Amino acid sequence: MSERTTPSLLRAVGPLSLTAIAINGMVGAGIFALPANVSALVGVASPVAYLVSGAAVLLIALCFAEAGSLFDASGGPYLYARAAFGPFIGFQAGWMYALNRISAVAAISHTFASYLGYFWPGMAEGSGRLLTVTVAIALLTAINCAGVRPGVWAINFLTAGKLIPLAIFCLVGLFFLDGANFSFTTLPVPRDLQQASLLLIFALGGFESASIPGDEVIRPRRTIPLAILSGVSFVVVLYLTIQVVAMGTFAGLAQSSTPLASAASRFLGPAGGALLTIGAILSTTGTNSASLLTGSRMLYALADGGLLPRGLAKIHARTRIPLLAVLVFSVVAWTLAVSGTFTQLAAVAALSRLMFYVTTCLSVPVLRRKLPTSEDRFTLPGGALIPALAVAICAWLLVGSSLAQAEMLGAAILLGTVVFLIGRRAT
């Protein structure tokens, strides 16, 4: 009689799919309003802000790439912080990621309903909005409950769906640029350039999603660094091109509440606005799909490490997914969405990302000493220089936070400590 074995997660996520997860984490609803915000701050110097921010984010991504090349398991920043600094710091990093993704799903679900209201106004208000949010989260949950392959296929489809309208916008728009829109007589104020760069660094975050589902990635030690760096490079170029096209085709960019749709209507006609709205609908859906997959895997990783109840780490025998973790993540996100309490988490969302960025960057030199070298290891040049620069960037961003944001972050850390202590007792 054959011996029964405990089911494990299925390694079914290849390089392209993992890169799609990274891109989905970065390209959300924000890009459809971002060009106006950046242009309002620094005007024609906007491309400079993108280049500065892209370089800063790349430094942080390089730290994730090296740390990711050291592990085969799920958890990303949680794994790196735990191996370097112990279970408490590791839990806080994982807790911050889970909190970030849960609040993102709740908020983006409402953005999805707003964009859907472009075609069906009733979906964006009252009971129609509630129904839209509920159905959207339920549908993505059902897809992810069917297995990692359906979840990844959905992400791949939605990634293509969100990128095609943006690619059309960029490729066609480049032929309609007006050189007069790029002229300037004064340089931007350094403070405004700093604010624009800070905004863009937050907007370019999300690549770390590719580091989370390590147990389901094919050859994770090589695939994770490749997906992170490819995703960041691609999105920086995409965002920069979008900004240039929006600036060059729409003189009123800084004052627009719908910058991409308005710019597209200049050279694509009325169909341009509809095309970009469809892209926004697919973009928000894709971001939520990736967040649901990676957020639930973070709950799984924390439970598998004995820091949350073990039931969250149980693998379904047929679908080979952490079913309870998927359901818990979805229910909590839905509860926040329909209750509106996700708005209280908005202030801490960006700072929570910076916290696990800091722990990952700090862990790189520590893990170099703690873990043995291997042929799959991706080692950054320059010793501790790149991690140090990345930590300095995160510290600069943290210093620029408001008192209200700092208070919310402190509350989130305190709540995480309570959850950590309860979780340790429950395992």
Shape: globular
Look up the CATH topology: Amino acid/polyamine transporter I
Could you give a short account of the major beta sheet? none
- The first-to-last residue Cα distance is 32 Å
Domain count: the total is 1
Question: What is the chains' assembly state?
Answer: single chain
Strand content: under 5%
Count of β-strands: 0
Task: Tell me the name of the CATH homologous superfamily.
Answer: Amino acid/polyamine transporter I
Return residue spans where pLDDT drops below 50 for at least 5 consecutive residues: none
Instruction: Count up the helices.
Output: 15
- Average pLDDT for all residues: 88
Q: What is the succession of H and E elements?
A: HHHHHHHHHHHHHHH
> Could you say what the CATH architecture is?
Up-down Bundle
Q: Helix/strand/pairing class, anyone? A: mainly alpha
Classify the helix fraction into a percent range: over 70%
The Cα radius of gyration reads 21 Å
CATH class division: Mainly Alpha
